[in-house]
Write a structure and sequence with these properties.
The protein is an alpha/beta fold and about 550 residues long. It is built from 19 helices and 17 strands.
Amino acid sequence: MKNLYLLLVCACIAIFTISCSGNRGVENRCATMASGEVTASAEIGVVTTESGRVSGYQADGIYIYKGIPYAKAERFMPPVAPDEWEGIRSSRAYGPTCPQGKRMGWYSDEQAFAFNWDDGYPDEDCLRVNVWTPGVGDGKKRPVMVWLHGGGYSAGSGQELPSYDGTNLAKKGDVVVVTLNHRLNVLGFLDLSAYGDKYAKSGNVGLLDLIAALQWVNHNIASFGGDAQNVTIFGQSGGGGKVSTLLAIPAAKGLFQKAIVQSGSMLRTMEQKYSRRIGSAVMEELGLKASQIDQLQKLPYEQLLAAGDKAVARVRAEADKEGVSSFIFGWAPTVDGDVLPAQPFDPQAPAQSKDIPMLIGTTQHEFTTTAYVPALRNVTEEKAVEGLQKKYGNRTDEFLQAFKKAYPNYQPKDLIDMDFIFRPGAVAQAKLKAAQGGAPVYMYLFAWESPVLDGMFRSTHCMEIPFVFNNVVRHASMTGGGEAARALGDKVSDAWLNFARTGNPNVEGLPMWEPYTVEQGATMFFNDTCEVKYNHDKELLDIVLAFPVRGF
């Protein structure tokens, strides 16, 4: 299961567009660029930021800027403003990604083909943003969409999938798209706060990076044609967890106005008694005494990560014995009473974000067991039920009855593939948000199945991302790029864009999408037809939740 998680955890990124209104010369240039021409010139699209001027390039009518520093930081220390620079900084290539462990998915040809990862080059100096915008210096205030990549809190980057490219989304919706890198794993979430004030915030510096990036957007995005008062944060998997957590961080209040959580509803995160225990275990693994704490800042990253991963495994085994059950454990935000005062969505939704509209959902199959166990793809119902009996015992018949009611057209392999890791948390988060009686929350279930590789991936984890970014063709190795995928991508990206503009995802081409309530449970099913269902799996989830569920 650990390898499967590492294979599927993925992340995300985005890019921008150029306005084609104005005189005929501009129109002709845009028409030329739409044919695939890239224009890079010191005279095009120079933008002034607080730290200095930057220049990007134009492609398909979009201004694109990559690798702009939004902050800098010493190891384990909070981020500070980046160094200012003289002249014009070339910002045309992605900057460094945060160092991380090996991506196990590279060792699977089928996964590597479908996901088509680009992991860039690692460096601890990784605090960078990328921007895609339709126009600069035109006086427009466009909605801003800030993408937070997945990978738990251990891996990923703002460029890792073709889906993350922001060009098509920016161009279609006349919005500004931002993606970013921040510190991860042992660099971003090693809690050394027990070793003195110097390291008081070390367990959450990865979160502080996110806040610094949002502050950069707040201070600079107007220069890129964006509206700092209309910012939507959205993210998938670990990125959804980051969105969930930012909603509860006091320092993030006012830096965004809308939030989208895709397959990452994180209700709870690390408690400090465990994060500090991991910090102490790292010191023990390295043979260091408390007086030698500063040596951690100089150790080679690979040595630090190896010690950190061993420490996490050891403390997680202890936590399991103490009854702690969490999908995310170890490298994750810590409830420290300061940066993160309380659990994000437990026991209630964060009061500070009551007036922020939310969009929450999951994919139907998420980790799609049959994708990685080919022998199960043609499983009979009898064999699938045998597996269910091991978990649900004398409630198996009750589970099957509720399953058939929720999914009347199911296939036997659905009994194995249907997601019960992410959806329970998403439903719980939507209920908590709705109970606030503030801004609305909308819920979706992405149920479209990819035909790629004979349909082996189904509606797996990350499958909705190309549709959200209007990148169905750009990421055809995942979607197939066919007519049905393109039609659905048009609807999904429209819904996300309208939510970013207005806080409401209703658009032409979709049925009326009502806000989620506990009583009605309205959920938009994204598939070839698209339909709204009401509490369709309530009875099923009640049974599932009666048994141990290691959710996100």
